[in-house]
Every structure is written in structure tokens, then in C-alpha cells.
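thought: fold this chain, then report.
action: predict
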Amino acid sequence: MSMPAGWYDDGSGRQRWWDGARWTDDFAPAAAVASRRAAAPVLGFVGLALAVVGTILACIPAVFGVGVVVLLAGFVVSLVGLFRKGAAKWPSIVGMVLSVVGGIVGGIVFVVVLAASLAGPVDPVIPTDTPSSTSSEQPSDSPSTGPTEARPSPSQLSETILADLQRSGMHQYDDDPEWVACWGQYVYDSDLSDDALQEYVQTMDVVGEERELMKTVSTDATVFCSSQ
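observation:
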């Protein structure tokens, strides 16, 4: 035999000392053998656990860097556990594979979230129909229908559109009071009824027959005020 000196199973199930040339009469204590056998697979399971935790952390953009470090540690520990004698190989193999897959998945999630944050907010109003020639003109100095006590003021409309945009996660007009005031005045001067405007101020929405008109007026107001 060409095996180096060490403790080996001599075929009887016991660990016996091989001096490099022949078997000796020295046998390892049963307790020590059991201890080594019990400790052998520990590294594999530790590496697998690190790979699982690292994968979870890597998929959270805020702690992506921490997840990568944990995944690297899981891969190294699993690799060491793979070469431990008497250890089960599957935990180490699964840990190594999961470390690689977790790093790839976490990287994809991080890139997608980063790209989404750099894309910026979406335009607050989605046009539905092409506005008519009359609706795109500059609003008159006075409302088409005389103001009544039930009609919301331009400032109320301005406050409502700003709150509506903020509720939708759009904050590009937070520091643009002139645009907000212009939008409120434009909608106030429109052909929308008092009831429709009151409904918008109260619910940030208009239902019924004037819903489409509200969309058109809102679109026209956005375009007009943005050009001022």
C-alpha cells in the first residue's frame, strides 16, 4: 500500500493506525471516532446555511453588499466541507451551487431596482383622446359658467391635484407652486360642472358623464401649464 500514515478503517469498522507501510496494533478510541464522524458533515451544513441566508440578503437591494459577502463565505465553507473525510457531500455541493445562483439572482434584482429608480417618475396624466381645438386654447379670464358657492376655488383644486400626484408617488411638482396654481385656475375656468369639481376635490376622482371631460381638461391643463 502507498497510503500515508494515519487513522483508517481496517475493514472491521474500527479506526486503526497505518504507519505508512503496515497496520499497527493501535486502535482509535470509539468515542474519538464517533466524535470525528459527527463533526465531519458540520462544515457542509454551515456552508449551506450561509448560502441560504446570503441568497435572501442579496435579493434585498439595501443590503445587497452584505448578501454578497455572506454568499462568498458560504461558498468557501462549502468548498472546504466538500473535501472533509467522512462528511456527507450533498450539503457542500448544494451550498456551493446555491451560493452561485443566489449571487446571480441577487445581482439581477439589484440591477432591475437600480434601473427603475434611475428611470424617474411617470407623467402624471395619461391622455385618452385628442383634445379639440377649442379645449387647447388658453382659458378665458372668467369661467364659462359663473362661479357659485358650490364651485371649488382654484386654490382648492391646486391643493387637490398636488395631493393626488403625491398619493401616486409623483413629487416633481412639489417645488413648482406656479404650475400647481396654473393647473387649478385652468380647471376652475373649464366647462366642468360645480358638482364634478366638488367630487374631484372630495374624492380625487370624477365618475359619471363628466369623467372623460375631466380627463381631457386635466390633460390640457398639464400641457398648458408646463409650457408657461
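thought: worth noting. The chain has a mean pLDDT of 82.
final: C-alpha cells above.
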